[in-house]
Amino acid sequence: MPDHGGDTGGALPHDAIRRIVMAMIPAIFLAAIDGTVVSVALLTIGRELRSFELTSWVVAGYLVSSTVATPIYGKLSDLHGRRPLLLVAIAVHLIASVLCGLAQDMHQLIAFRILQGLGSGGLLALAQATIADLAPGPQRGRYQGYLAGTFATAAISGPILGGLLTEYLSWRAIFWLNLPIGALALWLVHRVLPGPERAGVRHAIDYLGALLLAGGLGALLIGLTRIGQGHGWTEASTLMLFGLSALLLALCALQERRAEEPLLPPVVMRNPVILAACAILGMQFFVMVSAVNLLPMRMQAVGLASAQEVALRMLPMTLATPAGAFSAGQVMLRTGHYRIAIFVGTGLTMTAQLGLALAPPASPWLTAGLMLLLGYSLGLTMSPCLVAAQMSVPRGLVGVATSTTGLCRSLGGAIGVATLTSLLFDEVRSGTAAAPAAGAGRAGMLELFGMAPPELLRSAFQHAFLASSVAALIAFAVAFTLPAGRLDHGRH
Predict the structure, then answer these.
(1) Where does residue 342 rank: exposed (0-12), middle (13-18), buried (19+ CB within 10 A)?
(2) Residues 6+ apart with CB under 8 A from 96
(3) Among candidate residues 481, 370, 470, 348, the one with its CA nearest the CA of residue 420
(4) Residue 188 maps to which CATH number?
(5) Residue 298 burial by CB count (10 A; 0-12/13-18/19+): exposed, middle or buried?
(6) In this model, does residue 444 exceed pLDDT 60?
(7) What's the whole-model pTM score?
(8) How much is the pLDDT for 209?
(9) Is residue 8 within 8 Å of residue 395, measured between CB atoms?
(10) CA angle 352, 358, 363 (to 5 degrees)
(11) Residue 44 lies in a domain
């Protein structure tokens, strides 16, 4: 497959690219950690703001807005350059963090979290697209591995850090933490990142397409979030949301065919490399969500581990993920191929996830080894899939290709949360007397776990992890359909 990764007339020196990568790491950390750091503080937030029934939307609102914003940032950065969009995204995130820390009631906090998501939605995709602009094909995997490792490490360690800040300071400290990190990110991007090269060119922005895409994705994600909160798949409100999503996304597809500057160009959406990479990343994040969200719950509900013990037991996965991302970069650099790391990574993910489903919860060392393998395999897969997608399109579509993979990654995680928590809670609820009603919220689910017998909890968690193993198997199968390609050593 030829490399269309975007020729800039010669790569920058290694030291210059490394400075730019290092400058973007705080922005990546900022975006990744905010997706998970708040989850462990929800009960404390609900207690202080006197609104338990709305706590889950503190996370869901952020997820929906960041996912919807990702493809819009990607297209706008292709038209107007990465640097100005990155600065805007960081600034929006910082302003929203201040507002979240000052929120006086739950409705304010949810609104400010939605604004925060609108800022963070562009951070990872824009940083990854910037690397694609600057680094030659074989080197690109190495640098993307740094970013993928940072993202995964921050996302996995978020609950640990959130728990410590909430316990020893305040849940508001979770948002104040963003200020020094965001200020550093803003300063580094402004100082180090090159400015846009295409100045003075006017483009017709597809506002209608953006509106239809945002509405369709928003309805889909809200429906999935409600399922994860305990609402049924066949409830009238859920079906209405899914129907509205299907209608708006269908209209968006029609609009993209006629738009002068489509947000998601049909040529990208028909690209077999991008389709395969998106499917693999979506399924891998389905698996990652099951580990990050369900493993701590299983450790506490079945293994009777304390919060501090859970934090320590999650360390193998946290430490192994960046190691896998680094290995992927080295494999691509030395071999010039991206398929090798993807095959090995998806195969190891399937093995590790199946092992976690079958391993006895009372075997912490076996679980730790499987978590180590899972974290390594997830890191091994992320950057090669991204590089494959970027190398399959011309330079002018790198931002769209990058944000499309980011969109599918987020959708995979959202579907994973909805599906696995729904399976878990439905099985526990059906076997528990006097169980809370569906849709009772997070507090009701924790009450449900306290009433359930240990045998039922072990069975429910096992079935949830087996379902996640199916997603891992799908990723492994799709890897065989990924077109062969070599990273051209002579092109940028």
Answers:
(1) buried
(2) 112, 113, 115, 116, 118, 119
(3) 470
(4) 1.20.1250.20
(5) buried
(6) no
(7) 0.77
(8) 79
(9) yes
(10) 90
(11) yes
